Amino acid sequence: MTTITLPKCAIETLVKICAKHDNQPGELINILHEAQGTLGYLPREVQEVIARQLRVPVSRVYGVVTFYSFFTMTPKGKHPISVCMGTACYVRGAETILDEFKRRLEINAGGVTPDGQFSLDSLRCVGACGLAPVVLVGEKVYGRVTHAEVEKIITEHAEKSS
Amino acid sequence: MSYKMHALVCGGTGCRASNSQDIIAKLQEALEKKKLAGEVQVIATGCFGFCEQGPIVKIMPDNTFYTRVKPDDAEEIIAEHIIKGRKVERLLYKDPERKESVSDSKHMSFYRKQLRVALRNCGFIDPENIEEYIGRDGYAALAKCLGEMTPREVIDEIKLSGLRGRGGGGFPTGLKWEFAGKYQADQKYVVCNADEGDPGAFMDRSIMEGDPHSVIEAMAICGYSIGASKGLVYIRAEYPLAIQRLKIAIQQANEYGLLGERILDSDFNFSIELRYGAGAFVCGEETALIHSMEGARGEPTMKPPFPAESGYLNRPTNVNNVETFANIPVIIMKGANWFNKIGTERSKGTKVFALAGKINNVGLIEVPMGATLREVIYEIGGGIKNGKKFKAVQTGGPSGGCLTEKHLDIPIDFDNLLASGSMMGSGGMIVMDEDDCMVSVAKFYLDFTVEESCGKCTPCRVGNKRLYEILDKITRGNGELSDIDHLRNLGKVIKDTALCGLGQTSPNPVLSTLDNFLDEYLAHVKERKCPAGRCKELLSYVIDPVLCIGCTLCTRTCPTNAISGTRKEPHVIDAEKCIKCGTCINKCKLKAISVQ
User: At B87, is the secondary structure helix, strand, or coil?
Assistant: First the structure.
């Protein structure tokens, strides 16, 4: 195992989360949920700390992290944008909305802008199909999004940070 | 305190996304200003179902149904309706056919053909208040089971009702309970599968958000009948509101002694915990779900052993889906012989569908089994959006198929949908119109399956990827005739050889579109054309110089400045710059722009 260079407080948090679940390997998914909720993402070192606490191989933790789409090993942008690609949104033109975000932000789905402001993802159905196509920026939901509104959504959030 | 009137505001995810929480706040504010806070109670309910018209506010007792309400309308609703007794006409639902306002939901074509069994409480009660559930006979079924029925009698009642699993498989629920009941163990488990992964389906979420206690009560009944004292709800982490409401409901049930030890003074103990999913479609498969609850990768395993014999932590486990559970308390209260009168010969009861796509009335509906697709799409759904032509309806999600015009009059039930090349699935129903390319739709579903395949078995991991690649090649205009045979053969092999339900059904979208829309595949392959105008590589946008008057509207809306021309002169599109987004077509009032 490589040396861990995470800040001490982050390690302590992880140890506490694991202890709360009695360091039980069966609780791995719940532990990862809490770790990602606190730290934002699950880089290699976080997985190593968790593996050590639960006394399981890192490969087991890595296997679980990469299996589930909810877990991410890269940090999100300050304004994480998710375009719903559920079927209802898809047939109402979500693909062109996603393409427009890609074009305007110059990143692909899964990417983060170089300044760390925006990250772009597609997700599968938030269940607000009556508002299709749906875009989420953080917790905020935009419904019936049109091609032309993409720019507006980006500017709205870019201004918020400046 | 008793209130004279109630304002029910939809607090489902869809309406909350359109600010229904602000509406609640504004209504309360207006009531306080008028000193009516003690007379009128504002309640956040679960989903009303008519999502297209959301956010919805319903005033009781006169059943007035306000649609697309904005927070700023709150004051007017209070001042006009509550105080003066005059309905706010502009917020009433307008019947598109009769062109008149309808104020009572009973008279809306969207609701008229529906029969609400699983959704009986959604939109009527405050899901965060157990007393409202109890007020509508909640937990009476549990009391009846514990007080008057033996576990065997409960199982027999469910068997007699003919209820089949609503999660997709359609396996008889009573039989499943009987199996789990037969095995002896120190601990057994009842699991509620709330990992609703179908893109475009939100039935289970709406039940958990709108009526969480019905699921809890049913799980306890199941626990009593099979001899389990522990229940687990496996729920998607992407459903924060449903999680919150379930947590509140479990806590309240514990406080009221409806969960916990010696429930209702019987010897029966039952507790419920939540387990979170993390975004994996395959976890809807019960063995995969159980592995995921154990903290491992959600990969399915061979059956037998069935979970009824060896499931969670190798103990006997009964897994049912949310909607299945929501039917249980009603069956116990009204009797199996009431339930089995509804529906068709082999599919009893009702089914909840999430109706979405190119349809006028997007929403959550519940109809008796045996209703036809025509009734659902045209009467309840209000027909196709923007007067376009119906092309297909996709049922069963990524595992289902596309049905066409010729299937519209088939009574919907488990067996008929299967025989038509699709399946019931969990109840997603996506309507498509003439602008949807069926090859692209098949590709869309395969893209989903490829991403969601767990990778354990080769047919699913490699086979679906190859199917996707062939479809991609066709939509790019590079397809050959032999590709169509490859799709068919490979699809059949995957169906026959994949390990679990995901792989065995994943080629369905391809096979059903090949059966029903072969001409579209042929147009892509032979003529290199996409008849629906969706496949970008096969399209070019052109302006008709005769029709164009040079109004410059398109130049101003084009995001890439691909359109040029002088004012009042015909414009041209630069094919190099054009990203084929379609914005100009929608803007042009003279229909001078077309896709070729």
Answer: coil
Mutate to test the interface with A, among B579, B584, B595 (most CBs of A within 10 A): B579
Place of tokens 């009698």: B153
Which pLDDT band, with edges at 50, 70 and 90, does B168 fall under? confident
- B115 falls within a domain: no
Q: Which of A41, A91, A134, A139 to mutate to test the interface with B (most CBs of B within 10 A)?
A: A91
Least confident interval from B96-100, B119-123, B288-292, B354-358: B96-100
pTM of the model: 0.91
The one-character DSSP state at A75 is: P
Provide the CATH number for the domain around residue B584: 3.30.70.20
Which is nearest to A144 in space by CA: A101, A106, A88, A104?
A88
Tell me, yes or no, if A125 comes closer than 8 A to chain B by beta carbon: yes
Alpha carbons B546 and B548: distance in angstroms, whole number? 6
The size of the A-B interface in CB pairs under 8 A is 140
B374-388 pLDDT, tens digit each: 999 999 999 999 999
pLDDT band at B137 (very low <50, low <70, confident <90, very high): very high
Q: Does residue A125 form part of some domain?
A: yes
Average pLDDT, integer, range B267-294 = 94
Q: How many domains does chain B have?
A: 5
**Do A90 and A145 belong together in one domain?**
yes
pLDDT bin (cut points 50, 70, 90) of residue B82 is very high
Q: Closest Cα partner for B326 from B164, B194, B170, B218?
A: B218
In a domain, B457, yes or no: yes
The verdict on B215 and B252 lying in the same domain is: yes
From B168's Cα to the closest Cα of chain A, the distance in A is 18
Model confidence pLDDT, tens digit, residues B85-109: 999 999 999 988 888 899 999 999 9
In a domain, B264, yes or no: yes
User: Does one domain contain both A90 and A156?
Assistant: yes
The alpha-carbon gap from B261 to the nearest alpha carbon of chain A, in Å, equals: 24
Instruction: Note the ipTM here.
Output: 0.89
- Asked if A90 lies within 8 A of B199 by C-beta distance, the reply is yes
Chain B: give the shortest CA distance to residue A34, in Å. 11
Output Rg (C-alpha) for chain A, integer angstroms. 18
Q: Which of B202, B275, B358 sits opposite A127 (nearest CB)?
A: B202
- For residue B29, which of B7, B62, B14 has the smallest C-alpha distance? B7
Q: What is the pLDDT of residues B5-43, one digit of tens each?
A: 999 999 988 898 889 999 999 999 999 999 999 999 999
pLDDT at B1: 56
Question: Between vectors from CA B205 to CA B199 and to CA B206, what angle results, nearest 5°?
Answer: 115
Cβ contacts of A53 within 8 Å, gap of 6 or more? A14, A15, A18, A19, A23
Same domain, B40 and B27: yes
What SS3 class is residue B583?
helix
* B435-462 tens-digit pLDDT: 999 999 999 999 999 999 999 999 999 9
Alpha carbon dihedral B136, B161, B427, B393, in 10-degree steps, equals: -120
Is A147–B583 a contact, with Cβ atoms under 8 angstroms apart?
yes
State whether B448 and B551 are in the same domain.
no
